[in-house]
Amino acid sequence: MSMIRDLRAVVRPSRVSLRKDGGTYDATRSPATASAVVDCAVYRDGRRIETETPLTPHEAVRLARRDGGFVWIGLHEPTEAEFSGIASEFGLHPLAVEDAVQAHQRPKLERYDDSLFTVFKTIHYVEHDQLDANSEVVESGEVMCFTGRDFFITVRHGGQGSLRALRHRLQDDPELLSKGPSAVLHAIADHVVDGYIAVADAVQDDIDEVETEVFSPGRKGSPRGSDAGRIYQLKREVLEFKRAVSPLLRPMQLLSERPMRLIDPDIQKYFRDVADHLARVQEQVLGFDELLNSILQANLAQASVAQNEDMRKITSWAAIIAVPTMVCGVYGMNFDHMPELHWRYGYPVIMGITVVICLGIHRTLKRNGWL
């Protein structure tokens, strides 16, 4: 890891510069670009310590260690240079720091010496007027959490999953926030899982809509194969949902069952409720996957039946047309000595016989369900 960091420093030496507080900042970031630090605050006895000017992470750490309490720093898509100063300030493990900066991690819980590193996948339902083969149903983001004795750091990736409203709700409940960083970790876990429940209900409505349309009797005007595209797209979106939910179940069970130094015993009880809700959502998502498989198979079976119906109709009409084709072919050979060739009533008799035979074949095929 250190060799990789040294190599990056050699290749991009102008990217990192020192700050007065001993940290680093990204020199390639434009001054007009918003800082990666969304919010930085110190909490003591469950209440936010108000300051005249916004605190920098370095100032917040000094204030928290001087007056007690803990610091909560929220970041949005920080660069490696921006995060390195905070990481060194709190002694965060390099592997966890690398995961937090690069993102695209699966939900997990990792324990290091003096901190916990937790990854959550946030899921947001994308509203759409009508579900089609190109509709985006769910949109995912990531929230990485570093939990220590006197600090809590969130690193968020993606446009969804803002924690601003959650921070305000926690600040309105000083008794809960006084439990320390583990209370914030539980609040974020509960917030993420509540989002899963809302998305699961919305996805259920989409699946019900597709199921109703696939099995609607006598449905016309829909291009053949359009349902299969919609079902497959919905199945892909459910798979993305499943990747966020299923790996998170084990970390929530560990937080609710196994005693940990950084988790307050009173807060640990609440993780059981989160794990229970998450297990229910996982069952729903697995059920969605199985149901979509059944709907897709039923749709393909319906398409096969429709094709067989078309082939039977084509074959039936080909059999009916074969009779006049044969008769006309025989009388079109231009022989002088043919039966009834010069008879006055030969033409109407032959045409009548041809019509009668065709009607007989048509009636027989229709009685057997081919037409």
Task: Tell me about this structure.
This protein is α+β, with helices and mostly antiparallel strands and 371 residues long. Helices cover 55% and strands 15% of the residues. The chain contains 11 helices and 9 strands. It has helices at residues 2-11, 57-67, 80-90, 94-102, 164-171, 174-177, 181-214, 226-245, 249-257, 265-331, 346-367, and strands at 16-18, 24-26, 37-44, 47-48, 70-76, 108-111, 116-125, 138-147, 151-157. The strands form 2 sheets. Strands 4-3-5-9-8-7-6 form a 7-stranded mixed sheet, with helices on both faces. A two-stranded antiparallel ribbon has the order 1-2.
| Overall pLDDT metric | 80
**Radius of gyration from the CA trace?**
35 Å
Q: What proportion strand?
A: 5-15%
Order of helices and strands: HEEEEHEHHEEEEHHHHHHH
The parts where pLDDT drops under 50 for at least 5 residues are 1-33
Largest sheet, in brief, is: 7 strands, mixed
List the helices and strands and how they pair.
Blueprint: H1 2-11, E1 16-18, E2 24-26, E3 37-44, E4 47-48, H2 57-67, E5 70-76, H3 80-90, H4 94-102, E6 108-111, E7 116-125, E8 138-147, E9 151-157, H5 164-171, H6 174-177, H7 181-214, H8 226-245, H9 249-257, H10 265-331, H11 346-367
